[in-house]
Write a structure and sequence with these properties.
There is one protein chain. This protein is globular. By secondary structure, the protein is α/β, with parallel strands linked by helices. The protein has a 6-stranded mixed β-sheet with strand order 3-2-1-4-6-5. The protein has one domain: HUPs (Rossmann fold, 3-Layer(aba) Sandwich). It is about 30% helix and about 10% strand. α3 links the parallel β1 and β2. α2 packs across α3. Bound molecules: iron/sulfur cluster. The site of iron/sulfur cluster has 13 residues, from α6.
Length: about 260
């Protein structure tokens, strides 16, 4: 696919009041309706559809930057949900602050109810080294789930070629936040993008760079669970190295547990 250039798009008002969307069937319909749109066109549609009830989730990785760079030209101030786990690299926090300063991002820092010290006291020190699923559940999944109750849709930077477990990610999916109750649309506008396309966009548009990107890191998450890539490794191989864990869980919310979790 061609990489769409960032451009200012007027956000037109819908011609007739849109009905309230809800549920998996509507997510499938939106996936079909938006399938042929360019990234800026799709984001403009999401803004029209969901207005103030739209957020974007980002840890300021490369894909997130592509989405944010387009979105800020379409609508300023869309809340950027950042999972402030207490374990980020200082470079990530500095990069976040730089983007707030330079791009005017409206970052919402989502924190777990427990501080790291309180979690250590309850579970023992360095839970991530023994049970990263519980640590991620406490510090990422639970805070995001709580925050998303306040929105109708959120944007991600997922790509289908990031790993096997993401190869079937739809353009729009429905995430149930409470069994049989509240839910939210998860919009994945980069599903068809490839890593080289993302890299090319960052370069051609001279986007700010996370300082660790050029030090051998692929995907960057919490510091204790992220290592540099070895030659030839896949971009996400440095996450949870030594564990059979591929996802923190925020993208698995609302899905039945897989028999062989990736
Ligand atoms: S990525 Fe690691 S440190 Fe961060 S929340 Fe998950 S297990 Fe904990």
């Amino acid at each position: 696919m061609m990489v769409a250039r960032a451009m200012a798009l007027p956000v037109a008002a819908p011609q007739e009041p849109a009905r309230v969307l809800h549920g998996a069937a509507d997510a499938r319909d939106l996936s079909i309706e938006w399938a042929a749109l360019s990234l800026p066109e799709l984001l403009a549609q999401a803004v029209v559809r969901f207005g103030d009830r739209l957020a974007v989730g980002s840890s300021f990785g490369k894909e997130g930057l592509v989405v944010l760079d387009h979105l800020r030209r379409i609508r300023a101030g869309v809340p950027v949900l950042f999972l402030e786990t207490g374990y980020h690299f200082p470079e990530t926090l500095a990069f976040r602050d730089r983007l707030v300063q330079e791009w005017g991002l409206n970052v919402q820092n989502l924190r777990a109810p427990q501080t790291v010290a309180e979690q250590d006291a309850e579970y023992g020190k360095d839970l991530f080294s023994r049970d990263p699923d519980t640590c991620c559940k406490n510090r990422k999944v639970a805070p995001l789930r709580r925050a998303l109750v306040g929105y109708d849709a959120w944007l991600t930077g997922l790509r289908r070629d990031q790993h096997e477990g993401r190869k079937d990610v739809p353009l729009v999916e429905w995430q149930e936040l409470e069994p049989g109750g509240t839910g939210v649309f998860k919009i994945n506008p980069l599903v068809q993008w490839t890593r080289p396309e993302v890299e090319r966009y960052l370069e051609e548009h001279h986007l700010p760079r996370h300082p660790l990107w050029d030090q051998g890191y692929g995907s960057i998450g919490c510091a204790p669970c992220t290592r540099k890539l070895r030659p030839g490794e896949h971009e996400r191989a440095g996450r949870w190295s030594g564990f059979e864990k591929r996802e923190c869980g925020i993208h698995l919310m609302g899905k039945p547990p897989a028999p062989d979790p990736l």
